[in-house]
Amino acid sequence: MSEPDERIPNAVPHLVGNEWRYLKECLDTNWVSSVGPFVDRFEREVAAYVGARHAIAVVTGTAALHAALLAADVGPEDEVLVPALTFMATASAIRYCGAWPVFMDSDPSTWTLDPEKTAEFLARECEMRRGLLVNRTSGRRVKALLPVHLYGHPADLDPLMELTAHHPISLVEDAAEALGASYKGRRVGVRGLAGCLSFNGNKIITTGGGGMVVTDDDGVARRLRTLTTQARADVVEWIHDEVGFNYRLTNIQAALGVAQLEQLDRFVEAKRATARAYIEALARLPGLEPCCEQPWAVSSFWMFSVLLDPAVWGSPRRVIDGAAAAGIQCRPLWYPLHRQPPFRDSCQAYRVEVADRLHARGLSLPCSVGITADQRDRVIRFLTHLK
Ligand SMILES: Cc1ncc(COP(=O)(O)O)c(C=O)c1O
User: Fold this and answer.
1) For the whole prediction, is pTM greater than 0.90?
2) What residues contact residue 29 under an 8 Å CB cut-off, 6+ apart?
3) Domains of the chain, first to last
């Protein structure tokens, strides 16, 4: 039973497996830093889980995105098409490459990158110049698509992959929120050139902080290993081919990851059970529309989110503040990136309308892996009385 004044967090880690045992093993064996048996095992097991040939462990999901974009040959003054409705890191990683995000709209049925509007942008706003795809407005080369499997729901990848077949662009998946989700029977992260995962504390499994790039491409995997290990070419003389990054995950973090991965199937089921319970209970309340699964998708329901009818509920902020006073941590949807201070004056946004509407009405409810039925009931009771 949850106590009435016990705080219900939005999404916190669930550390109930072999975490202690594997951490102790690191300390007992002196393997604590950025190589070690748990790093190798974590990479192997994540690769097997998602069905990729390679997995490269890195310090954060943001580092995974940065390294993957570099491996996709995204460089200074290039452009990457990215949804406006996502976490800041998706676009920050583009800027780390010296490239620019161009913000696309969301599909109202998945809240992820709208494939039709993205295709329209390429058809109307871009042209081929000497073999390069160029954005007519900026004069810059468009190098990649970066769809985000938002809140655990897969983006519709087939039409986006189709765009990469007809244009000289790569597709990199931001699957930071979607480990455990599938698109048409395959785990997300493996359709494009590379997929990026996050093991931040609020993700479905955590290593404290951490990330992974998965790919089927041997060359991309080699490039990622080089870039993320300071581009060290000669391991005896410490000669470096170029300026790389110290992005390697430690054995201690990977030990946590291995223990968490052992529980992932159960964690996904717990998230999905929470989504089912909320969907059923909230159907009795007016003016609430949950983000549902498409028939071709299995969502990890990393976040459980709803759209509020403002005539019934007022603004998401009203609900968030009321919930906070009741000890319940709700969250708004991501603040659309084309309105973020570092991007709003310098980056192009193409017909972004749905993303703004979703943000204006969206709310994420508590959905930790370990949330109890009592805690969910408290959230539902709170909403029932607030309305
Ligand atoms: C969509 C998305 N992309 C990237 C990241 C970055 O991951 P990290 O926090 O591990 O750097 C996150 C989450 O934190 C995310 O939600």
Assistant:
1) yes
2) none
3) 19-261 (3.40.640.10), 264-386 (3.90.1150.10)
